[in-house]
Amino acid sequence: MIIGQHSILYTTDADADRAFFRDILQFPATDAGDGWLIFRMPPAELALHPTDGAPTHEIFLMCDNVHATMETLQERGVEFTTPVTDQGWGLMTHLKLPSDAVLGVYEPRHPTAI
């Protein structure tokens, strides 16, 4: 079902930050093409914080088979807010949390670091 988490950090100097993660933190990475490094991260945790404004995030749950994952999760009462779309880099949908926030769920087609 869910096989990992893909987090995105937006930065004004992506090359320098990639070098920091590669050289300083020594996180293993895979090159998804043209030097676009995707880093393997250690086990992750998730904290849910209250907000007075609209929820914001960029967290994607990765799975081996998005359609099978959707079916399993729907059997457990999970609602998906979008149909599966082909983004080129993967098949993507979104699931709704009890708070009405959404998380992306995708089946990657690009090389992954896991």
General description of the model:
The protein has 114 residues and is of the alpha+beta class. The chain has a single domain, classed as 2,3-Dihydroxybiphenyl 1,2-Dioxygenase, domain 1 (Roll), CATH 3.10.180.10. It has two helices and seven strands. The strands form two sheets. It has a five-stranded mixed beta sheet, with helices on one face. Strand 6 and strand 7 form a beta hairpin. The longest helix is centred in the N-terminal third of the chain and has 11 residues. The protein starts with a strand and ends in a 6-residue tail after the last strand. The mean pLDDT is 89.
**How would you sum up the global shape?**
globular
Report the uncertain regions.
none
Give the class from helix and strand content and strand pairing: alpha+beta
| CATH class identity | Alpha Beta
The CATH level-2 architecture is identified as Roll
Beta-strand fraction estimate: 25-35%
Average pLDDT: 89
The count of β-strands is 7
Count of helical segments? 2
Strand order of the largest sheet: 1-4-7-6-5
The percent range for helix content is 10-25%
Q: What distance lies between the first and last C-alpha atoms, to the nearest angstrom?
A: 14 Å
